[in-house]
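pasting input
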Amino acid sequence: KNEVEQSPQNLTAQEGEFITINCSYSVGISALHWLQQHPGGGIVSLFMLSSGKKKHGRLIATINIQEKHSSLHITASHPRDSAVYICAVKGYGGSQGNLIFGKGTKLSVKP
Amino acid sequence: AAGVIQSPRHLIKEKRETATLKCYPIPRHDTVYWYQQGPGQDPQFLISFYEKMQSDKGSIPDRFSAQQFSDYHSELNMSSLELGDSALYFCASSGRLRGYEKLFFGSGTQLSVL
């Protein structure tokens, strides 16, 4: 079983829909990252969370430490949101970038 | 704003050759991380450097080595290349100004070993 599980693996939505991507992890963590990867490989860091909730524009990320679960929400989705969204966790010890990555959720938003 | 720069963008090598990948962090970032992402695979952490010293080590093969230079750029040296080394190699940097909180990623180097 992977230490970081994401669901769904693939998601197709219509423009304007509210989207939720889930991440569950089985290890103790000091932080959780949500990353966005576009075709061609470029990765953008969206959020780093250790507790609670963060919001940036149409993106909202939440984390429940007790349940070892995080969600990424996209409101009013747009075709430009189409990308792979990756959840990655930082365990205790090691450098900040020593992350365990999920397999990603491929999101496609249709106009 | 300046981002993390990686070069080359694409690299084609043959088996048993060597390759050198470069990563230039955001100015004033003192920490660099390297990752390997095989086709259809999730990224794997390889190694990191802080202030020119290795700070952490992940699943980096013994055939690979890396270093961080005085200008904080980093190079990943890969020798005796194997077909299985074909992957996207990307780096990230972080710095004290943001409390090392946020990672900034480069676009990656796509290595193909033939």
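fyi The interface with chain A takes residues 31, 33, 37, 42-45, 48, 50, 55-56, 58, 88, 90, 92, 94, 100-105, 107-108, 110 of chain B (CB under 8 Å).
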